Amino acid sequence: MEALSTKTLELGGGRHRLFYGGYGYYLDRINNEEGQACEASQRLPPASGCDAPASEVPSRSAPRVSAAELREQEKQRQALIRRLRRQEEEILKSLETLEAEKIRLETELSKPGVYSNGEKARAIKAELDKTTAAAAAKLTEWEEKAAELEKTSASISG
User: Fold this and answer.
1) Nearest Cα residue to 27 out of 11, 13, 10
2) 75-107 per-position pLDDT tens digit
3) The whole model's pTM is what?
4) Which of 46, 83, 126, 152 is most buried when burial is the number of CB atoms within 10 A of its CB?
C-alpha cells in the first residue's frame, strides 16, 4: 500500500479525515495523535477542536511530505534495488566462471601426464590456489551484496 498511496482517507465515527501522505505517514500521525491526545486543540482556535479533519489541522509534530517527494524516494529505493540485483547477478556469474575454472584445473591436475611432471603440476596447483582464493573472495562479496539487498528490500516493505 505504501508504494501506491499518496493520500490516506480515514473513515469512522461519522467523520472522515484526509492525510496527505502514504500509509506509513498516516500511521505515524495516528500514533502521534494518540500520544498527544488533544494538545493541538489547545493551540488552535476553539472552533477547530479535536474533531477537526486532519486536512484542516496544521501538523506541528510530523513534517508534511509531499506526494512528489514520496514518489521520488520510492523511485530512488527501487533504482537501488535494481542496481543491487544487477550487481548480485554479475557476482554470481563471476563465481560460476571461477568454479568452472577450478573444476577444470582440478581435472587437469589429476591427469597422469601433468601429475608426473613436477614443474607443470606446481604451476597448475598455484593457478588452482589463486582461483580458489578468488572464488572465496567472490563468495564473501556475494554474501555482503545479498545481505545489503535483503536489508534494502526489507526497509521498503517494512
Assistant:
1) 10
2) 888 888 899 889 989 999 999 999 999 999 999
3) 0.52
4) 152
